[in-house]
Amino acid sequence: MTAGEPTNTGGGREKAAFASVTTLFFAWGFITVTVDPLIAALKTIFSLSYAEVMLTQFAFFMAYGLVSLPAATLIARLGYAQSIVTALGIMALGCLCVPVAAKLNTFEIVLGALFIIASGITVLQVAANPLAASLGNPARSHLRLTLAQAFNSLGTALAPYLASSVMLSGGMFAASSGSLATAAQRSQSLQHISMEFMGLAGLIVLLAVFIRAVRRQFHGARFVSDSGAAANVASALRSRWALLGAAAIFLYVGAEVSIGSAMTNLLHQSDVLGVTLEQGGKLVSLYWGGAMIGRFVGSAILARFRAAVLLAGAAAVAAALCLIVSQAPGALAGWAALSIGLFNSIMFPVIFTLTLERSRASSAATSGLLCLAITGGAILPLLVGRIADLAGLRTAYLVPLVAYACVSAFGLMAATAPAREVKLPQPSH
């Protein structure tokens, strides 16, 4: 918080401020998952291999590893409101770079644009999570973050359907295009991508204007930042459970992102559902919608069952579904892939909290290492893409299968390890 800002503790203003923050959770969820139909579009338009097109996720998720620590310093210096507006400005700039890439017919510029967008989202996440927690009664911080995450999940559920309607329709994706698309059809498909991201840029700018207009609502919230954040993360490397938790987060996020990235093309295959790319892209909403539903259902189940056991079971089922995708014929493989989202739902927060309960490093250091492990979303999709090129997309599902099996083993290990008493922060993913 910058000097001279008045502090407000009024409940009405805090509720209004929290309502404003939920729009940020929705926005970054929507934009993050817009990359899924974009992958299918770019693969066709630029005639890319799976390994090449998965560089989109590499460019996107590497921002978490490179920008998270600088983001904390930025927010500590500028305060919440200005940092959020800055983050939204960065995201809008990245979105506007996509039409430039389309105009220049350059895939590499798309990668740069996605990195810029993700950098803004990273700053936004580092600011919005603690901000949502601080806007109200501390005893109800978990409830507020759960509600905010529901809006994030709503964004991830809506994005594939709406984005596919734009980016995977007409042009090269029209039913009449055939196997040999014309230059005009290719140009039209690139224009559709430009329209999608120009529209996103416009909405982000409007959101930035809104946040700036209500910025006084955030004056009572203070950002706590440790200037030695990098050193803190390094200290977590000496904790066995911090390392195990980071590995589990790395594998889970990598599996989740890989599956979502490949889903449209998987459902398009004639030996799966055989739908058009546009229809496949819209069906991806079921994958992310399952995660949204699972978070609500999982919250109730977690009140009755041990979190570690539930995590082990959910990851084991996800692994079994990946096996079905790789081996089963026809529609069964497609619906098995879409069902994985339901079992993904609880994994990230449960891995996070189980690790914090058992790590011997500080909560800040452990949390920092776990957030850096989100870069699994950059690495595993590259491996999935490489295997898809060599052995087929369904065979590539063996990669998330192994990842989920390891997460299940982590859950079983946590079930037998004593937890220490800590106050658990609730991150959002």
Question: Summary?
Answer:
By secondary structure, this protein is an all-alpha fold.
Give a written overview of the molecule:
The protein is mainly α and 429 residues long. The chain folds into two domains: 1-219, Growth Hormone, Chain: A; 230-419, Growth Hormone, Chain: A (Up-down Bundle). It has helices at 11-45, 50-53, 55-78, 80-104, 107-134, 141-167, 183-213, 229-236, 240-268, 277-302, 307-327, 330-344, 347-358, 363-372, 376-391, 398-415. Helix 5 (107-134) runs antiparallel to helix 6 (141-167) and helix 10 (277-302) packs across helix 12. The chain is globular, with a radius of gyration of 21 Å.
Number of strands: 0
The chain-level structural class is mainly alpha
CATH topology of the largest domain: Growth Hormone, Chain: A
What is the CATH architecture assignment of the largest domain?
Up-down Bundle
Element-by-element helix/strand order = HHHHHHHHHHHHHHHH
**Overall tally of structural domains:** 2
Distance between the termini: 25 Å
User: Helical residue percent?
Assistant: over 70%
Mean pLDDT: 88
Low-confidence stretches: 1-9
Give me the oligomer status.
single chain
DSSP helical segment count: 16
* Share of residues in strands: under 5%
The named CATH superfamily of the largest domain: MFS general substrate transporter like domains
The coarse overall form would be globular
Main sheet attributes: strand count, strand direction, barrel closure: none
The gyration radius over C-alpha positions equals 21 Å
CATH classification class of the largest domain:
Mainly Alpha
